[in-house]
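I hope you will forgive my troubling you with a question about protein structure. I should value your view on which stretches of the chain appear to form regular backbone elements. Here, with my thanks, is the record as I have it:
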Amino acid sequence: MSEKPSGSGESTLTVVLALLVNLAIAVMKAVAGVLTGSAAILSEAAHSVADTFTEALLLTALRRSDRPADRRHPFGYGKERYFWSLLAAVSIFASGAMFAFYEGFRTVFGESEEQTRPLVGYIVLGLAFILESISWTQAFRQVRSEAETHGKGFWAFLRESDDPTVKTVFLEDSAALIGLILAFAGVGLHQLTGSAVWDGLASLAIGVLLALVAYILARTNRGLLIGRQADPSMVKAIWRRLAEVPEVDAVVDVLTMLIGTDRVLLCARLDFDDSLGANELEHACVRISAELREEFSDLDEIFLEPVPRTDPDLRRRVLDRYGDLS
């Protein structure tokens, strides 16, 4: 049985907390970057600016995806969450990773710059780590709670989740904590060796980190926008449930597609008992739909199509999609 997770309310809290934290950190890092002349700290400032912009996009995703279905969009606006989350991934790469690469290459291959006031950098990076930990903890708690609700392991849920907002916040906060450690190492090695190359290398490492996070998030949202099937365990449970219906002789095909977070479109092709009359078939379809909605709360739209299991064209298409299931 599918259960609803905590809903968009906790996702909104997670995103708002991350936005406020990143905005404060971006200002601190920018000031520290100017005072110290550290490329790594300036890259981290750009990282936090990108994260702040990302949270704004995620808030837009949450607000617009909750709009009800209408004539123009009969299946609702759930996929808007995937679109705005995809833009958030682009923002992480365009504003964060590219600036970090620029600062890194400029520092490594340009004229050597003298480090000033490294203590300011250490203090700001330490404060930023504390604030980022608060945001990361909230995101971690939400992912863990939703994973337990769905009966999945933490990493399995994070990989398969159809809510890109909390995944984006968790990954970007994780990247932020790692980025702060890299920046701290860059500033420290610059101070110890007197060479700005270490600072530049730390900036390049931050750029690689952000590019990797952006790629993971972009690939996730691309799959959701294209039209990913529902959780395989849910699909199998629906298949078994339909096979138990007295009026159904055989389940020919089960098609699902995520049309939003916790919203699934279902099309089931069923070979019904040939002895059923038209009226009996209609009432059976209505009853089956109601029973499925009651058992699987994520089902948003349900289409039941009576088909013969022996149809060669239909069987070929099922085999092409899934292979031989016998």
The chain is about 70% helix and 10% strand. The radius of gyration is 25 Å. The chain has two domains: 8-226, 232-322. Strands lie at 248-260, 263-272, 299-306.
